[in-house]
Amino acid sequence: AQTVTQSQPEMSVQEAETVTLSCTYDTSENNYYLFWYKQPPSRQMILVIRQEAYKQQNATENRFSVNFQKAAKSFSLKISDSQLGDTAMYFCAYSGTYKYIFGTGTRLKVLA
Amino acid sequence: ETGVTQTPRHLVMGMTNKKSLKCEQHLGHNAMYWYKQSAKKPLELMFVYSLEERVENNSVPSRFSPECPNSSHLFLHLHTLQPEDSALYLCASSQEMPPGRGGYEQYFGPGTRLTVT
User: Fold this and answer.
1) Of A4, A37, A97, the CB nearest to B101
2) Between residues A62 and B97, which one has the greater pLDDT?
3) pLDDT-flagged residues of chain B (< 50)
4) Contact (Cβ atoms closer than 8 angstroms) between residue B89 and residue B64
């Protein structure tokens, strides 16, 4: 069975600094997708970034980028130039056929 | 209304009550999901509906009963719940090609905060 592990329950970063959130996963499938979702306080969960496992190139979305290491089953999220609006719970997620598995989340606080 | 909406936003119910949670998506998606979000636990996928057919039930107790009357609406019927069922229940939708393939962005509703007393 697939698993997703986020080992950092809470993190903080100074505004304008860079922070990296860790995620590891386990699967025997070869074709799958990985996501980072963001859940701001009292607001809806939204997609931050998506990675297709068969693509070597790391996905990027503006200030958000991933470091995808398929052999190591590692999928970390880097947030550059952190902003106060980045304060949220961040969930790493794995998706295969009818499978959506989320990690326990990392609570990120951006400090002014 | 846009996106995914859920009603009610908050619900308090006794263990012998029967209630229903409602989810509506306005995105034209072909798949809908129910998740349970408890503190310090991973988001748990409960049910998946693809083209209005239930295709996944992750060993959810029978006191939770889903219903998907059409591609835009999803219900979660609740009866004789336990205190440990208190959680945030999230609905999500996605457009999957082909249905069930996975890997597509999920759009989440705001959730229903359920408290079982």
Assistant:
1) A97
2) A62
3) none
4) no
- Please enumerate in sequence order all residues whose Cβ is within 8 A of that of B73, keeping only pairs 6 or more positions apart, or say none: B22, B23, B24
With contacts defined as CB-CB under 8 Å, which chain B residues touch A44? 3-4, 108-111
> Is the Cβ pair B42, A100 closer than 8 Å?
no
Q: What angle do CA A4, B54, A49 make, to 5 degrees?
A: 35
CB contact under 8 A, B102 and A97: yes
Cis (ω within 30 of 0) for the bond into B42?
no
- Segment B11-40, tens digit of pLDDT: 999 988 899 999 999 999 999 999 999 987
Q: Where are the alpha helices (DSSP H) in A2-41?
A: none
Q: Which of A9, A33, A43 sits opposite B103 (nearest CB)?
A: A33
A100·B103 Cβ contact <8 A? no
DSSP A104: -
